[in-house]
Amino acid sequence: MAEEIIQVKDLKVHYPVRSGFWNRITDYVRAVDGVSFSIKEGETYGLIGESGSGKSTTGKAIVGVEKVTSGQILYKGEDITKESVRRKMNYNKDVQMIFQDSMSSLNPRKRIEDIIAEPIRNFENLTTDQERDRVQELLSIVGMPSDAIYKFPHEFSGGQRQRIGIARAVATNPKLIVADEPTSALDLSVQAQVLNFMKHIQQQYNIAFLFISHDLGVVKHMSENLAIMHRGRLVEVGSQEEIYKNPEHIYTKRLLSAIPKIDVEHRAEHAARRREIEREFLQDQANWYDADGRVYPLTEVGPNHQVALPKEQIKGGE
Ligand SMILES: Nc1ncnc2c1ncn2[C@@H]1O[C@H](COP(=O)(O)OP(=O)(O)OP(=O)(O)O)[C@@H](O)[C@H]1O
Ligand SMILES: [Mg+2]
């Protein structure tokens, strides 16, 4: 059994909201509000949710670029929410991030060689030749021609830029990559290509991925385990297989029913099912969410399957 590489424990990230003449803190946006899950070595873990549910904030907290309000993120047993721990453990080398928008995440004024070499320079002392060899190797891993090193980001298509982003993220031999909607800006056909590269790299180098997406359909092909997030909390957590086959939470059912069906034969049936689930969601919402519109804590409902059940169904709850 693979070991857990990251354990997120009751993570909260609250952003202060300031207002009025004195610019005082008058409220908090509870972007992440008590989230726990863990990722095993070399696995792709899916984090799914609609816009604003707190996915990126969770990802940034794991990478260490977002200040955590409370909770722990354990890496090799140490809490990396503290900057001193991150520094001591060389955490910035082991954990990398890939972003949705490759145009703004790759420096437009730098050539590809420097873009990919930058993280290597931070952590290793290579000669110019060694460094160039390494960059060429990384480019070939993501299926890019070697003369790409002389070019600038704007000279590539979105899919190619995303592959350059992957090469850069892989450059430091990381243990974990947080991929925040890495393909959602790409055409469907290119999306599949980039996803295949990510899968290939994950398997070849045993890198764990936190794969963030709003699309359950995409995650299905990528991850063994997944967590569904809504309004800063986790709604349902478990194996991909179990969640697709036996979704329990009304929100998960709703997300699943929203995945478009390609086969024409079942389209009408699918549309009817979708309407039924939408109706159920509107009727039952009050049971599944608290007064703040947030789900209740997760309860184990089966092997590797947890659900934020309605209050009256939580064992030992009042
Ligand atoms: N720096 C910030 N200051 C204040 N509020 C923020 C900040 N960053 C994010 N938020 C708020 O926190 C909530 C969660 O944002 P987050 O970006 O994590 O969502 P997301 O799930 O990644 O959404 P999307 O799918 O749109 O990327 C949102 O309500 C957002 O407006
Ligand atoms: Mg986001």
Automatic annotation (TrEMBL):
Keyword Nucleotide-binding (UniProt): yes
SUPFAM superfamilies xrefs: P-loop containing nucleoside triphosphate hydrolases
Pfam families: ABC_tran, oligo_HPY
GO biological process, one term: peptide transport
Source species, domain of life: Bacteria
ABC transporter domain residues: 6-256
Molecular function (Gene Ontology), one example: ATP hydrolysis activity
Keywords: ATP-binding, Nucleotide-binding, Peptide transport, Protein transport, Transport
Annotated family: Belongs to the ABC transporter superfamily.
Protein name, per record: Oligopeptide ABC transporter, ATP-binding protein
